[in-house]
Specification:
By secondary structure, the protein is mainly alpha-helical. The chain has 18 helices and two strands. A two-stranded antiparallel sheet has the order 1-2. Bound molecules: fe (ii) ion. Fe (ii) ion (FE2) binds near residues 280, 308, 332, 333 and 361.
């Protein structure tokens, strides 16, 4: 309740700030330059629709760079005007989350005015960065302040709305920190070329960037579709084997929880969660008469069953976005004492992620009914894990795993 109030308070403050800047704006910048204004507006709208999704609640768009170029070429009101009108078009276009979008529009207008005032007012920069190296430095500072206000304001809002925490804020700065400076530098180039060489050269400058963007977008779409395919495969395995239905998900959830408990970053924990979902993906390569056999497997059948970590690691190794984690899949049946498979690794030779998955895998296997036995009780399963410490499992991980498993059983008991 309290944070909701904070959210609306911040929102209204941002809208008021934008209103204050707009009512004190120098509209001559726009009225005196109708053709360039139309040109920048078209560029802005074109680039608004070329965005790359770099995570929840954060879209990286080329239009920031076009807006920045507009400020540097004609001044803060001109830039804020291009940005404001462009965004209004966009809001009307997809009519989603209108209030939030208006607040973000206000933040944008405010930061555009501030950046323009820093460049022209504080430093006395020239139009189109035409006065040499110092102008470039001023523009960089203005661009940096624009970015900083943007991130901090967005965080203030998202945090109040319960959509972002402090660690998530820092984690999401990273992709921005890599991709934003080149965009602003390109914006500076755009301003320089437009001011000194006119429309044709400016358009020529946008073409290569559009191509790069088109390439990144297609790459991302490709990776996304691969990811979707792989995760639907996981569901296929769980669906195929009635005794392990939801097994992958349970293993992944507990692995993520253990990871957080032992101090993994959010990003690492999420990575481990993803890979744990896929730990048994290699079972797609195991024939039904073995995978679904009621009763014990004979030696030959076991030999085949034991290839599933290798098949899984090979499969995942083909996917660029997961390839670095394929080892966690290959070794999820290794034992701390070296008696596991497929490679008989021991102790810390076994990748850490694989050691965590092994614990969660064993726990879930014990806690579910199998063709040849009923699920073990919480107490017995916990003591099995404890007894396996230093033999089957990493002794340093066991205490953390026990905490997670115990907490999970408490929740189940309460239900
Ligand atoms: Fe497995």
């Amino acid at each position: 309740m309290k944070s909701k109030l904070r959210y609306y308070l911040f929102s209204i403050l941002f809208i008021l700030a934008a209103g204050a800047f707009l009512s004190n704006a120098n509209w001559g910048e726009v009225i005196g330059n109708p053709l360039p204004f139309a040109f920048f507006l078209i560029l802005f709208l074109g680039s608004t629709f070329l965005h790359i999704d770099i995570g929840k609640n954060s879209l990286l768009t080329l239009n920031d760079a076009v807006g920045f170029a507009a400020i540097l070429s004609f001044g803060p009101t001109f830039g804020a005007g291009v940005f404001g009108i462009g965004m209004v078009f966009h809001i009307i276009w997809d009519r989603k989350a209108i209030f939030r979008r208006i607040v973000f529009l206000s933040i944008g207008i405010t930061e555009f005015f501030v950046a323009g005032m820093i460049y022209f007012g504080v430093f006395g920069g020239s139009h189109g960065i035409s006065d040499g190296a110092l102008d470039v430095a001023y523009a960089l500072i203005a661009g940096f302040s624009l970015w900083l206000i943007d991130r901090i304001s967005a965080f203030a809002l998202l945090e109040a709305a319960g959509l972002q925490t402090v660690p998530q804020f820092f984690q999401r700065l990273k992709p921005f920190a890599v991709s934003l400076p080149p965009l602003y530098i390109w914006g500076m180039g755009l301003a320089f070329v437009f001011t000194n060489s006119g429309y044709v050269f400016t358009l020529a400058l946008t073409v290569p960037l559009l191509l790069v963007y088109a390439y990144f977008r297609s790459q991302k779409a490709y990776q996304d579709s691969l990811q979707d395919t792989v995760f639907s495969l996981t569901k296929t395995i769980d669906a195929r084997d009635e005794y392990t239905g939801r097994h992958s998900e349970s293993v992944a959830r507990n692995a993520g929880l253990i990871a957080r408990r032992i101090g993994f970053s959010e990003e690492e924990a999420a990575g481990l969660y993803e890979i744990s979902l896929l730990h048994d993906i290699g079972k797609v390569g195991i024939r039904d008469n073995i995978l679904l056999k009621h009763g014990k497997l004979d030696d030959d059948e076991w030999k085949i069953m034991r290839t599933h970590p290798i098949i899984g690691a090979d499969l995942v190794g083909e996917l660029r976005f997961l390839a670095g984690s394929a080892d966690a899949i290959r070794h999820h049946h290794e034992r701390w004492d070296g008696g596991g498979y497929p490679d008989g690794l021991r102790g810390e030779e076994i990748p850490l992620w694989a050691r965590i998955i092994a614990l969660c895998d064993a726990w879930d296997a014990m806690r579910t009914d199998r063709p040849y036995r009923k699920a073990l009780s919480v107490e017995i399963a916990l003591s099995e894990i404890e007894n396996g410490s230093g033999k089957q499992f990493d002794p340093e991980l066991v205490p953390f795993a026990l905490e997670v498993f115990r907490a999970e059983s408490d929740v189940v008991d309460e239900e």
